[in-house]
Amino acid sequence: MATYEKLPLVQPSAQNPHSTTISKRRRVPLLAILSLSALALLWSNRVFGIFHEREKPHALPLAAQCPQVDPLLPQRQTDALTLMEKYLESSAFRHETIARMAGAVQIPTQSFDDMGPIGEDPRWDTMYELAAYFEHKFPLVHKTLKLEKVNTHGLLYTWQGSDKDLKPTILMAHQDVVPVAESTIGQWTHPPFSGYYDGESVWGRGSSDCKNLLVATLEAVELLVKAGFTPQRTLVLSFGFDEETLGEGDGAAIIVDEGAGLANAFGATFATPAVGEKGMIDVEVTVRMPGGHSSIPPPHNGIGVMSEFITLVEANLYEPHFHSENPFLGLLQCGAAHGPDFPPEWKKLLGSGTTISTKNKEKLAKEVAKFSDEFKYLFTTSVAVDIISGGVKSNALPERTTALINHRVNVGDSSSDVQTKMTKLASSIAKKYNLTLHAFDDEAETPSSISLKSPSTLDPAPVTPTEVDSVTPYSVLSGTTRALYDEDIIMAPGLSTGNTDTMYYWDLTRHIFRYQGGWDPKQQGLGNIHTVDEHISVLAHINTVRWISTLVRNMDEASLP
């Protein structure tokens, strides 16, 4: 899940802006995080899981290709904040957070594609129940922060900072969950909205995607308020709302939404916040041809012509290609610099410098693409025919045949590139069968024609900067992660092949991260997000609370606008 960029790299001799000495008393054992976002997380676990894993990361000298910051912990400390940190590691908090998580999962905020307007479709009403649940369970949040309800169910919390000149920190999550198909209910080990706790995990739809992030964010802020923390930098919690509420034009210091987390790869442990997203374009193809009785068919009818077009599309797939801004190049460089099991042939192509020749990039793309589809589609535009329909009766020739072809656009390319290619392919079919071509021109369909339309279009996301030669949002996020878990954790830029809600906030800041900072090394996979037996490790959830509370404090102290 994410976009790619050419990463500015700092020499190892550069002074680290986050040099912080951490006593053994405050060092936290290496724990692990579960990636949450369905598509954004999918990558770090499926892709990294391919490689040999080790119980302990292998420490290597930091390299210029993948510079790391020192662990970063808040310097402003009070007795109350120290007690808060200890409480987060207590059995009392564990019991309480399990109950809160279970309660949130038990509210079935399912979101269906065919939902009608709010106020008319009763399926929206569970959102009222969830909002009331949050108000009951997090009284200090609702007493201290300003709550605005946007478009009825969007929850926008604002904790006003004392310094209005500082740009806010924005934390995001969504309230709705993927529906549970009635036909699958019997396959669940525990009922999908039970919130069942088995001693290690909470089970149920939304437990991993992403009510755990909702609850963890509110828990972190509730505890900060209780500990007497007062922010200098405004904190905004965005739980599903219109981005226009926050204004326009570089108005936020950092945005963190659901996304990838930590995983073992190349003989080390990497944290991979997605710093970009691939683009997306749906191409709706319509073939109009004369109907008639099927007992007297022409050599090719609409379904046959559509089939030929789809065959042509699948015979002309996109080649793997690394654009210079692709963040996955940065991840490969980090793997080469810090992973003892990194493939030597890839390392040779990457070279020892901070830039890669065009020739080597093309060779590298071909070699890495051979390894797995999970890797390949981090630097290749994907093509998938997802929907097709045509014909209404067995004895009637189809007059209108449609197909929807989904593309996830490679970083460095654009949706217009896809349109150009699809137009060229459709033109050859139209010419062969003497059909009129309407290619992305918004004209009405005509008889004997092929029409191409784009109902959904999104170019790849702007790539988040990952410089660490000064204090940056990325360096703060990185230092927070390495402080909570282990200095051997390697931070590397990630990419999301799917799209998150951050698409609505691109104008607010360049510093957008799809990342979840909660980690449990014992939990395998993604917690079955979007499928039967979804669950979340309680340890991962608790670590998410700890990570969020620490990030908020670190951002509050950071020398950033």
Automatic annotation (TrEMBL):
SUPFAM superfamilies the record matches: Bacterial exopeptidase dimerisation domain, Zn-dependent exopeptidases
Keywords: Hydrolase, Membrane, Metal-binding, Protease, Transmembrane, Transmembrane helix, Zinc
Transmembrane segments: 28-48
Signal peptide: none
Annotated ranges, domain Peptidase M20 dimerisation: 275-433
Binding site for Zn(2+) 1: D209, E244, H530
UniProt-listed GO biological process terms: proteolysis involved in protein catabolic process
Recorded superkingdom: Eukaryota
GO cellular component: fungal-type vacuole lumen
Chain positions recorded as Zn(2+) 2 binding sites: H174, D209, D257
A matching Pfam family: Peptidase_M20
Molecular function GO terms recorded: metal ion binding; metallocarboxypeptidase activity
Active site: D176, E243 (proton acceptor)
Family label: Belongs to the peptidase M20A family.
Entry-linked PANTHER family: N-FATTY-ACYL-AMINO ACID SYNTHASE/HYDROLASE PM20D1, N-FATTY-ACYL-AMINO ACID SYNTHASE_HYDROLASE PM20D1
Record protein name field: Peptidase M20 dimerisation domain-containing protein
Lineage: Eukaryota, Fungi, Dikarya, Ascomycota, Pezizomycotina
